[in-house]
UniProtKB/TrEMBL annotation:
Active-site residues, Swiss-Prot/TrEMBL: 6, 40, 57
Gene (name only): Vash2
Protein name, as recorded: VASH2 protein
One Pfam family hit: Vasohibin
Originating species: Alectura lathami
GO biological process: one example: regulation of angiogenesis
Annotated TM spans: none
Basic residues bias spans: 157-179
InterPro entries, alphabetized: VASH1
Length: 179
């Protein structure tokens, strides 16, 4: 089932597209309350060394957060504390990569580059993971997971690519000449 997209990426992408200094990325929360699980998505924003969010919710403290949080973990913990007020316990947090600023981009949104099972981690562990991820994001080291090919171990002498017909000697010579 699709998470309740409180602010689907389409409107917010356009609201902030003209602001290249504002980086946008999806944040989703899985919470538990009264025997049921709930999903909530907001758009995380990063600008001038501060974090905040844009979103929509019936609860004012579960949507927009001002650009005042020094670290990504401060922002996430603020959401966690807000959920506690409504007796929801946060089980998982998923954070995606920056959303491109190009309005006509066909690049799919990377919704879950980092997945943290918060209910099984200490706050110190969560902070450490979030800050490492945030640092890599700011340096734009992270690439969409779809760009990564799965790692396979090679057996000695075996190729991972499908078998191809042997090229004729004449074709091999032409390849060498071109290089």
């Amino acid at each position: 089932s699709r998470p309740h997209c409180c602010l689907d990426s389409v409107p917010t992408r356009y609201l902030t597209n003209g602001q290249p200094s504002v980086e946008r990325f999806p944040i989703s929360f899985k919470t538990h309350f009264s025997g049921n699980y709930f999903h909530h998505v907001v758009l995380g924003i990063y600008c001038n060394g501060r974090y905040g969010s844009l979103g929509m919710s019936r609860r004012s403290d579960l949507m927009d957060k001002p650009l005042t949080y020094r670290t990504l973990s401060d922002l996430i913990f603020e959401f966690e504390d807000s959920y506690k007020k409504y007796l929801h316990s946060v089980k998982k947090v998923k954070i995606g990569l920056y959303v491109p600023h190009e309005p006509h981009s066909f690049q799919p949104i990377e919704w879950k580059q980092l997945v943290l099972n918060i209910s099984k981690m200490t706050r110190t562990e969560v902070r450490k993971e979030l800050e490492k991820f945030a640092r890599d994001m700011r340096m734009k080291i992270l690439k969409p997971s779809s760009a990564h090919s799965p790692m396979k171990e090679r057996s000695r002498g075996k190729s991972l690519s499908p078998r191809r017909r042997q090229a004729s000697p004449q074709r091999r010579a032409c390849r060498r000449d071109k290089s």
